[in-house]
Amino acid sequence: MSGCRSIVIAPYGNAATTLSDSWLKYRDQKEFDVCLLFYHQEVLEPKKYEMVDYFFHLKGFKYRMIHEVLTNLHPEWMDKYDYFFFIDDDVQIDTLQINRMFSLARAHDIWICQPSLSKDSFCSWPILKTNDRCFCRYMGQIEVMAPLFSNYALKICMEAGTFITNNSSWGIDCAWTHLLGYSRNKLVVFDIVTMKHIHPVGKGELYKKIGDPYKDWQEVVKKYGTKRINYQEYGRLLKVNAHTAPIQFTRYKMVEQFNRLKQAYNDYDLPSRIRSQLHKAKSLFKKPPAL
To answer: Residues 222-257, buried b or exposed e (16+ Cβ, 10 A)?
Structure first.
């Protein structure tokens, strides 16, 4: 049995290629388990999925399938895993970047986070696209496309029923933010990790099955008493280098050099050396004691 404490759980369909092309591109280096939730009525090429750790043919909608797995099929996973990454099957992100996301979430003790979106991604919220000057940004909301949950945040959001509120998943990210108290330092976009959303928003086959997603959104807002939109930035950690912030970087380097010289001066202990030499000189001119 795998000793991993991190897992990718993803909806997957016959037309998707991201499993082999991206997520498991460097399969021998993965530090996480993979669970696919197949949503089509028929699995056309089952051999393609033999590389994953878990496979369930549930024929449903993303968050309803995740809820089914974590509450009925494998409730013990809520204790087995510390972090859960729920990626759409039209999101490209390679094995090493997924490893990095899990490591960053642990290191920064994040509740919900996501990679930033590449500049050429299809997206609903441009604020989530990569900011080259940032290491990460603290956000008011993380979207449903590819959230990485801590065990703590996931339990709160699942127990409140957000994963089974509707089929479209529209609006449930608003509920997550509300349930977690509108935290200003636990919801993060990591700009140093990038994913690419390869399909236009609102054009996939999902939208032919769900009816009016805007209605779903409004119903979530009403049910949970949440803000309709909270995509805003509360803070950021900057990447300070010669390319992203040359003036600030130069100032830091000058301070660093000054501190280095100061340390060298202190290590050399010039005042003590001067006092020692003066003492020696004084001793040379001191009269010898009378016989």
So the answer is: eebebeeeebeeeebeebbeeeeeeeeeeeeeeeee
262, containing H or E segment: helix 246-268
Based on the fold, state whether residues 223 and 256 are members of the same structural domain: no
Structure-block tokens of residue 137: 């940004």
Q: Are 114 and 149 in contact (CB under 8 A)?
A: no
pLDDT in tens, 47-72: 999 999 999 999 999 999 999 999 99
Domain match, 115 and 230 both: yes
Q: Which residues are 114's β-sheet partners? A: 189
**Residue 129: inside a domain:** yes
DSSP 106-152: HHTT-SEEEEEEPTT---S-GGGB--TTEEEEEES---TTS-EEEHH
> What's the confidence (pLDDT) of residue 36?
98
85 occurs within a structural domain: yes
Mean pLDDT of the region 192-221: 89
Helix (H) or strand (E) holding 8: strand 6-12
Helix (H, G, I), strand (E, B) or coil at 7: strand
